[in-house]
Design a protein that fits this description.
The complex is a heterodimer of chains A (about 190) and B (about 100). Chain A is built from nine helices and no strands. Chain A is mainly alpha-helical and about 190 residues long. In chain A, α1 packs across α2. Chain A is elongated and about 65 Å long. The model of chain B has no long low-confidence stretch (mean pLDDT about 80). Chain B is about 75% helix and about 0% strand. The longest helix of chain B has about 45 residues. Classes of the chains: A mainly alpha (about 190), B mainly alpha (about 100). Chains A and B meet through α2, α3, α5, α6 and α9 of A and α1 and α2 of B.
């Protein structure tokens, strides 16, 4: 992506006050930020607001960007940190009970015992709501970590770069959070 | 070791995967709104910096005046001051053994 897009030139023009360069940067960074926000934040949260907030932070800190890594990496770290801050401000639910699930979530849970069945759009939303509900019982850092590993398939190294956590801290968190998830799913079965 | 619950979790994630996909292009009006906000924040920053410099220069000026007044009062022995002020000046020179 960065090979095609002239980041350096764009940054230079932005520093010189060219607003068209800022527009190009926003268009370039939007997909990167949007994907991170959608992954880390619950579906019902206002993602547009958060994407905007991350973009503002990016432009405010652009002078700190050294250019030794692709700008997408630098912005990704900023986006993950901002998402974690937003999640920390939200209330963690103590537990998930089967009786609290909506009909769609209940269907998604039952269907997830079957392998290989691909859902329709409403099935995907039901599954996502249930995923958000389960993740909502975890600490924000655990929630993000589990999605980076299980959904995005990121390596420990990548996660470490994105979050600033050490590899041993990541492993420890994963080791602790897996049983929590299993236990919640077990409770839903009962 | 993978348990049934792990598999259920993976299936749930797989089923919800389409909802996690990010948008490749900003929605209509987003870039304009973002640019307007960047412009506004830049203006505020410039204003804050300008006010900040002024405040700093004003503080330095006040400090310089205060230092000048102090230095011009201290060398005197207080003979030409009012009795009350003289007492305060003498207290300043009070020796603690």
């Amino acid at each position: 992506m960065d090979e095609v897009f002239d980041v350096e030139g764009c940054l230079q023009r932005w520093r010189e006050g060219d607003e068209a360069a800022a527009e190009k940067l926003i268009e370039h960074l939007y997909p990167v930020i949007s994907r991170i926000v959608r992954t880390h934040l619950p579906r019902r949260d206002d993602e547009k607001d958060l994407v905007q907030e991350i973009l503002m932070k990016t432009f405010a800190k652009l002078h700190q960007f050294k250019g030794d890594a692709p700008i997408a990496h630098w912005v990704s770290r900023l986006a993950v940190t901002t998402c974690l801050d937003r999640l920390r401000a939200q209330k963690i639910r103590p537990e998930v009970r089967r009786a609290d699930l909506t009909l769609e979530e209940s269907k998604a849970f039952d269907a997830s015992w079957l392998m290989g069945s691909s859902p329709d759009a409403s099935g995907a939303i039901g599954a996502r709501d249930l995923v958000d509900r389960l993740l909502g019982t975890l600490a924000p850092e655990d929630r993000s970590l589990i999605l980076m590993v299980d959904l995005e398939g990121r390596s420990m190294q990548e996660i470490s770069q994105l979050t600033g956590w050490s590899i041993s801290k990541i492993k420890m968190r994963l080791f602790r959070v897996r049983p929590q998830l299993r236990q919640m799913i077990q409770k839903l079965e009962e | 070791m993978k348990t049934n619950e792990d598999q259920v979790w993976q299936n749930l994630l797989a089923r919800s995967a389409p909802t996690f996909a990010g948008e490749s292009e900003p929605p209509y009006g987003f870039v304009t709104a973002a640019l307007a906000q960047i412009r506004a924040e830049k203006r505020v920053q410039i204003e804050v910096e300008r006010i900040g410099w002024r405040a700093l220069l004003a503080s330095l000026a006040v400090l310089a005046i205060a230092a000048t007044v102090t230095l011009s009062v201290q060398p005197r022995d207080g003979g030409d001051l009012e009795p009350g002020v003289n007492a305060i000046v003498q207290m300043e020179n009070f020796q603690v053994s």
